[in-house]
Amino acid sequence: xxxxxxxxxxxxxxxxxxxxxxxxxxxxxxxxxxxxxxxxxxxxxxxxxxxxxxxxxxxxxxxxxxxxxxxxxxxxxxxxxxxxxxxxxxxxxxxxxxxxxxxxxxxxxxxxxxx
Amino acid sequence: xxxxxxxxxxxxxxxxxxxxxxxxxxxxxxxxxxxxxxxxxxxxxxxxxxxxxxxxxxxxxxxxxxxxxxxxxxxxxxxxxxxxxxxxxxxxxxxxxxxxxxxxxxxxxxxxxxxxx
Lengths: 115, 117
Known about the structure:
The complex is a heterodimer of chains A (115) and B (117). With 115 residues, chain A is mainly beta. In chain A, 0% of the residues lie in helices and 56% in strands. Chain A is globular and about 45 Å long. Chain B is mainly beta and 117 residues long. Chain B has strands at 3-6, 11-14, 19-21, 23-26, 32-38, 44-50, 56-59, 62-65, 75-77, 86-99, 102-107, 111-116. Chain B is globular. At the A-B interface, β5, β6, β9 and β10 of A face β5, β6, β10 and β11 of B.
C-alpha cells in the first residue's frame, strides 16, 4: 500500500487548459502539503492543509486552488495553465507524535508539462 | 525568518570516497533538523533526523550531528556507492513558526550527488 499516492504521474497539456492532480494518504496524518519542484530541484511550498482547513497559502497565483474533501485527500486544481507551471508537483503528509513528529512523507510526484 | 543553506552541487565522487555535504541553518526557535534524499524519478524520503542539540541521526551509513553552536547539520558517509547518487535536501521544522497547529518545514535547495564506479 502506497502511503501517499498522487495521480496522474505524468500530465502533458496545452496552455490555457485546466487540470487537476489528486493526492491521497493512508497514514492518518492531519497535515498535508503541496510543493512545486522546478527544473533545478528547488522545492517551493504552495499550500498546507490541517484537517481539511487551509493553513498555509504561499504566494501562489489564484489559478491554483487546493481542495480537501476529507483529511485523507488534498487535490490541486490549476486553471488557465501557463508555460511556467511546468514542474513536478509533490504532495506530502506530516506525521505527529514519536518517532514521526514533523517527518514528511512524500508522494512520487506528478510531472506537469505545459506546451 | 528561517532558512537552510546547502553547498551547491553537483558533488562528483568515485565509489568508496568520503562524502560531506554541508548544511547550515537559521531558525527562530529550537528546530528539528532533517536530511531527505530524492532518487531519480521519485519523491523525497526521509534519510535521517535529529531533534535537539548534539543528537546524531544515522541511517544507511549516513550520519549528521546537530551542532547548535555552529548552526550546522552536515551530512557524512564514509564510503559512497553508485546507488547513493541522488539529490540530498537539508530541512528544518521550527515549532516557533507553527501556524494553526502546523509546523512550517523549510528546505534547502538540494545538493546533487553523482558517484562514479
